[in-house]
Design brief:
Blueprint: H1 2-10, H2 16-46, H3 49-52, H4 60-84, H5 87-113, H6 115-131, H7 137-150, H8 208-211, H9 220-230, H10 232-275
Length: 279
């Protein structure tokens, strides 16, 4: 009878495989979150803070920091909760993952249903980014990368660059870039021996046909929409790839929570029998 009781006390419902697998899962993403926050903070420190404040909503470094801090908090709860077998932290981790997963799902469904409103919101963000193009080096590099990769210029058309104070086409604008577009709008031919970095000069004074010989005249919104329609399977695969780690984290945390609860019940049962061996 004493041997049986000792075996009951040594028995644990908590599986070391589940416990340390969940810890390793969270530790990897915890390290990633630290890297994201570090990169975001570094990007904010090295550039002009006053200029960056003008466009916080589209500042890539701010987005990186926000996502990194959020991921840090969630994965911290998962790491500590799994190691310490803390139900409260594990439940916090699980609830956060469920909420994020549902928000992503809702965003995808709503974006599909209300595609026109989503398009107008994206247009608004791109126009805001164009306005602050010269004020934030990270934003500038992001826009230039997008225009080069998609072969586009501006939001709806190349004339959208007139919304930027440096490229504005009004006669009173003293900027040397008046009526121009960024170099990333230019069509670069492989046969060119010398690349003309001033190819965007005065392009807004030309009509679509004339400007089309030198720059991409179509806006980036239509290009991005067409790319999305052409790569639905790729985007679906990325969405599934993002969802799987979240679902795995939810499943492992729920399994561990149930195991910890069973272990607590076993310990309470043993304590009752120790105090009252005849019960």
């Amino acid at each position: 009878m004493e041997k049986s009781r000792r075996n009951d006390e040594d028995f644990s419902y908590v599986s070391p495989v589940v416990k340390y697998l969940l810890f390793l899962f969270n530790f990897i993403f915890w390290i990633i979150s630290l890297v994201m926050v570090s990169i975001g903070v570094y990007a904010r420190v090295v550039k002009n803070a006053e200029a960056a404040l003008a466009c916080l909503s589209v500042d890539p470094s701010v987005i990186l920091m926000v996502v990194g801090v959020l991921m840090f908090f969630i994965t911290f709860c998962g790491c500590v909760g799994s190691l310490r077998e803390n139900i409260c932290l594990l439940q916090t981790f699980c609830i956060c993952l469920v909420v994020i997963f549902l928000l992503q799902l809702a965003a995808g469904v709503l974006g599909f249903i209300f595609s026109d409103k989503a398009r107008s919101k994206v247009t608004e963000m791109i126009n805001s980014a164009i306005v602050h193009y010269r004020e934030d080096i990270d934003l500038q590099n992001l826009i230039d990368f997008g225009q080069r990769e998609f072969g586009c210029c501006g939001g709806v058309a190349y004339l959208d660059w007139s919304n930027n104070m440096y490229f504005n086409c009004t006669p009173t604008n003293p900027s040397r870039e008046r009526c121009s577009v960024p170099f990333s709008c230019c069509i670069i031919f492989k046969t060119e021996a010398v690349i003309n970095t001033k190819c965007g000069q005065d392009m807004q004074n030309m009509d679509y046909v004339q400007a089309g010989d030198y720059i991409h005249t179509n806006g980036c919104i239509d290009k991005v929409v067409n790319w999305i329609h052409s790569n639905l399977f790729l985007l679906g695969g990325i969405a599934v790839g993002l969802a799987i780690p979240q679902l795995v984290g939810i499943l492992l945390s729920q399994i561990l929570i149930n195991q910890i609860k069973d272990q607590i019940e076993l310990q309470n049962y043993n304590l009752r029998h120790q105090s009252d061996p005849w019960s």
